Amino acid sequence: MPSGKTVKLILYEVLQFAALIIPVLVVMERFAIIIHNVKGQDLTAYWLVVAISIAYVTSMTLVVWVPLKYLVLKQRINTQWRPTALVYIILCTFPCFALIITSSKVQVDSGHRSDQFTELPVSLVLFSLICVDIIERIRPCRLTGQSDSLDPDLNIPPYPILTHLEQVTTVSGQLHSDETQSLPETRNGRVSGRWQDNTGSPSPSTLSSRAPSTTYLYSSRPQSYPGRLGFLWRRDERSQVFVDSFLFWLDTVEMVRVAGEPPVFYSAWVFPIYIFAFLSTLRIAVTPNNPLLSSAGVALQDLPFFIIRFALLIVFGYVTPVLYPLKNALVSLTFVYFTLLSKLRIFRGQSMF
């Protein structure tokens, strides 16, 4: 009976391998249909493309994918980048996007417009990419029982839990009390013992640290809410990974969707759209906790996407919602401001807001 880790490993590898070969076979078969129609119902051209797709899948599996998985699983090196994801977008996403662009060019040159790759192939390619990203993120977790933490920071709740309140005397009040106690009292010509025992009073540095404050401690686990609706407050990092992954790729999905519009697909704009969409997928090679991911997102996605969408709105009208270029512009501007401009002396003045 195989262990749970072995079953999980086999499941992940089968899913990743399926996400690798299925999009390539589907897109190439769709491309073979286009060649078949353009060549005047020529079956030879159709089966030639199908044979090339099978040969490509077999060669890349034996030459690249299997040796890479062996090295990655054997060494188990925890780095700031993911070699499996990088090889995946080179072996699968890149040829799929290239075939979609080629199909547009072939149909425009021949005057035969029959297939825009609008739904199944493009959605399958992007869904497989998201699945690979989810598997790479959720791999450190176990599938049953309570979740292992993917990131120590994920255990910190996003809200403060008031655990302790301590009333501390103010500095002025403490000084006033000490001065009252340290005044000399003369009784029968002799100084009281209070004056002589002044060495035990707290130092000014100790007094300055006793500012009035309220202590808020962050608990390592969220509050538990009893009752029948207590499950509504439960949170699991494994389910959050699925949400984060789909939101992470939502901008790229929308950009590729715009390329499926007939006026855009049968024009030269399909080339920059798919080229920059592929460049944005390179972010999958960076781990989610890598600080480089923020700058890579602006350089590979938000800034070029804003330029392309702004141009598309001018040329084709509202083929894409205005919300997306606004998002790209705001993300780029805030990144430049908080990482570069806020470091300048003019923005560090205490008199400014």
UniProtKB/TrEMBL annotation:
InterPro entries: Uncharacterised_FAM23-like_TM. It comes from the Eukaryota. The keyword Membrane applies. The keyword Iron-sulfur does not apply. Keywords: Membrane, Transmembrane, Transmembrane helix. Signal peptide: none annotated. Residues 174-185, 195-213 have a biased composition (Polar residues). Residues 174-213 are annotated as: Disordered. The chain crosses the membrane at residues 9-33, 45-73, 85-104, 116-135, 266-286, 306-324. PANTHER family: TRANSMEMBRANE PROTEIN 236 (PTHR31453:SF2). This is Transmembrane protein 236.
